[in-house]
Automatic annotation (TrEMBL):
Native organism: Gluconacetobacter johannae
Pfam families to which the protein is assigned, alphabetical: Transket_pyr, Transketolase_C_1, Transketolase_N
Keyword Transcription regulation: no
Chain positions recorded as thiamine diphosphate binding sites: 85, 145-147, 187, 216, 292, 473
SMART domains (UniProt xref): Transket_pyr (SM00861)
Name this polypeptide is given: Transketolase
Name of the gene: tkt
Keywords: Magnesium, Metal-binding, Thiamine pyrophosphate, Transferase
Domain Transketolase-like pyrimidine-binding: 385-561
Catalytic activity of the protein: D-sedoheptulose 7-phosphate + D-glyceraldehyde 3-phosphate = aldehydo-D-ribose 5-phosphate + D-xylulose 5-phosphate
């Protein structure tokens, strides 16, 4: 049993319940545009748009607080299509609603989508890709497609609204009170990330969040009964959600009543279970798996159009009056609401100029003045400090000067050192859990996957979000990190316990292949600093990056703090790699490393120097930043004529060959780790000064 109903509800024949002729005309326009787009592309998912067109229409036309003429209006309701495969549904809505285009943060006097754009669905360079993409198509609030991610994003969006309201709302000035609506499906309900996100939302009592669950009981393999028979209603009630049900997706009156009930419930998030028939109206494929992920075919489309009372020989047909009807509903309502908000904000800016200035910076993705003025400088120390510790200190030096920098960990802040400890930081919790929605410490629980997708949702509101965990558990977070990059969102991922230096916890907790994975993800900046001053420079480098996610890789064990009067300044980190120590003239060997291994190569360098070997040390904390430098700079750090090279990193060797060449040496992990004290592991796996010296001498000998 999956919900209140035990049997699939079939939509009745005839008109949509509770709709006018004009409503039905608009609904069938959405259906037929979606069918025609998929058919022309010979690829896509027509069934869900056909089934869910009535609820989507009712939400957009009659409920959504959204101004198509200003899709950047800060207090707009958010609509998330977590079932991103049903993208023709949102593209049809964007076109019919007349959503305006956006370029470089500016709203244009041009449509986001034209009818011609709908005909180019899934084609190269079109504005209507196979799954909705943020930034690519105005009106799309987040990139969706991997199921469950949109659900997680929507929780982050709802959290962001609560935080913005707590910080900026004042008596008589309700600047932020928007609602987040998410269309999700059976696939979302099966994905673990959605369950993690739902549990989080229930705990946080996010009454500004409504998920609309299309329960059509069909997946690619057939009926969901083959794999998914749980009681979704009871599960969500257990999470602390308010659960409602609509027995027929075509019943507009019932659905809108349930939307009103959901919005009135301010103490809990709401799940509305909507029963639909996938491919509704198709004579043979309605209610079948073949309506899910493939074109219907010409004959079936003609039959569906016949059932809708539609001209069978017309494609991409928009009847007269449909566009105008949307303008009189959503368009007029949204224009009035956004105009009222802008007038309210103008008065607010006069009354609270400092807060208005903050909000302007948030909305335009700018940093506050003086955000970095208290970043510490670390004195040389042989004992040093773990980079997770110095990072926590730097974070707590920055955060008081950066009021909209918020974040937390997956139940690991005592280990990742990401808790904000200054007075007034507070915990993000509902008042009944002894917190405030204005708190800056987020507690995600042991939910790494949802943590990443939630931070993407927070970031989409302009708030700078960070999250943290152990590097090994970045495996649970690959999808949200990848989506951060796809959306150009500046989420900061902080991962500690970065190597076999974890020690006794053993190979299950010792990362090996994770650095390769993160380095290979396009659009992600990864930094693995070698001492406390490189940590400080990493933060100074990362936070101004507003168009990409960053990953900070930190150690559990202490790292000696280098004497920067002897070695090069840590400011070289901003270029990704820099000459830390050098010889006179052309070096015989270049020693390169990241993170904790920098100390190893520095010690080897000092021995080689004493032996008269001309050696150079290159700290390489960020490959992607280094690769972004001009070739002249890269060649100055790694001269092509120097073939003697040694790279040292306690991780997979994959990738280092681009820097050491075919004849250089790589001291790296060739296997998983082991459970033992860290010093024993270093010896076992060859991360010793002696091992580095042995390889360096071999490489230096080639120069002669």
């Amino acid at each position: 049993m999956r919900s209140i109903l035990t049997q699939l509800v079939r939509a009745p024949d005839g008109a949509t319940v509770g709709s006018s002729d004009q409503d039905l005309l608009c609904i069938n326009t959405i259906r037929t545009l979606s069918m025609d787009g998929v058919q022309k592309a010979k690829s896509g998912h027509p069934g869900t748009p056909m089934a869910m067109a009535p609820p989507a229409y009712a939400l957009w036309q009659n409920v959504l607080n959204y101004d198509p003429a200003d899709p950047l209006w800060p207090n707009r309701d958010r609509f998330v299509l977590s079932i991103g495969h049903a993208s023709m549904l949102i593209y049809s809505l964007i076109y019919l609603a007349g959503v305006r285009d956006v370029k470089h943060g500016k709203v244009l006097d041009a449509p986001s989508l034209t009818l011609e754009d709908l005909t180019q669905f899934r084609q190269l360079d079109s504005r209507t890709p196979g799954h909705p993409e943020y930034h690519h198509t105005a009106g799309v609030e987040t990139t969706t497609g991997p199921l469950g991610q949109g659900c997680g994003n929507s929780v982050g969006m709802a959290m962001a609204e609560k935080w913005l309201a707590a910080r900026f709302n004042k008596p008589g000035f309700p600047l932020f009170d928007y609602h987040v609506y998410t269309f999700c499906g059976d696939g979302d309900m099966m994905e673990g990330v959605a369950s993690e996100a739902a549990s989080t939302a229930g705990h946080l009592r996010l009454g500004n969040l409504t998920w609309i669950y299309d329960s059509n009981r069909i997946s690619i393999e057939g009926s969901t009964d083959i794999a998914f028979t749980e009681n979704v209603q009871k599960r969500f009630e257990g999470y602390g959600w308010h659960v409602l049900e609509v027995k027929d997706a075509n019943d507009l009156a019932d659905f809108q009543t349930k939307l009103a009930v959901a919005k009135a419930e301010t103490a809990r998030p709401t799940l509305i279970i909507v029963h639909s028939v996938i491919g509704w109206g198709a004579p043979k494929k309605a209610g079948t798996a073949s309506a899910h992920g493939e074109p219907l075919g010409d004959e079936e489309i003609r039959g569906a159009k016949r059932a809708y009372g539609w001209p069978e020989d017309k494609s991409f047909y928009v009847p007269e009056g449909v566009l105008e009807h949307f303008q009189k509903g959503l368009g007029a309502r949204g224009a009035a609401a956004s105009a009222a908000w802008k007038a309210l904000y103008a008065s607010y800016a006069t009354e609270y100029p400092e807060l208005a200035g903050e909000l302007d910076q948030i909305l335009h993705n700018r940093l506050p003045a003086g955000w970095d003025k208290d970043i510490p400088v670390y004195e040389a120390s042989a004992k040093g400090v773990a980079s997770r510790q110095s990072s926590g200190e730097v974070l707590n030096a920055i955060a008081p000067n950066f009021p909209w920098l918020i974040g937390g960990s997956a139940d690991l802040s005592p280990s990742t050192k990401t808790n904000l400890t200054f007075q007034g930081a507070g915990a993000y919790q509902p008042p009944e859990w002894n917190g405030t929605y204005g708190g800056r410490n987020l507690h995600f629980g042991v939910r790494e996957h949802a943590m990443g997708s939630i931070c993407n949702g927070i970031s989409l509101a302009g708030i700078r979000a960070y999250c943290s965990g152990f590097l090994i558990f970045s495996d649970y977070m690959k999808p949200p990190i990848r989506l951060s990059a796809l959306m150009n969102q500046p989420v900061l991922y902080i991962f500690t316990h970065d190597s076999i230096g974890v020690g006794e916890d053993g190979p299950t907790h010792q990362p090996i292949e994770q650095l390769v994975q993160l380095r290979s993800t396009p659009g992600v900046t990864m930094i693995r600093p070698g001492d406390a001053n490189e940590v400080a420079e990493a933060w100074r480098t990362i936070l101004p990056m507003t168009d990409r996610p960053s990953v900070l890789i930190l150690s559990r064990q202490n790292l000696p703090t280098l004497d920067r009067t002897v070695y090069a300044p840590a400011s070289g980190l901003a270029k990704g790699a820099y000459v830390l120590a050098d010889s006179d003239g052309t070096p015989d060997v270049i020693l390169m490393a990241t993170g904790s291994e920098v100390d190893l190569v520095v010690k080897a360098y000092e021995t080689l120097k004493a032996e008269g070997v001309k050696a150079r040390v290159v700290s390489m904390p960020s490959w992607d930043l280094f690769e972004a430098q001009p070739k002249s700079y890269r060649d100055s750090v790694l001269p092509p004529e120097v073939g003697g090279r040694v790279a040292v990193e306690m991780a997979s060797p994959i990738g280092w060959d681009r820097y050491v060449g075919l004849t250089g040496s790589i001291i790296a992990m060739q296997s998983f780790g082991a459970s033992a004290p860290a010093d024993q592991l270093m010896k076992k796996f060859g991360f010793t000064v002696e091992a580095v010296l042995a390889e360096a001498r071999k490489q230096a000998g080639k120069a002669g």
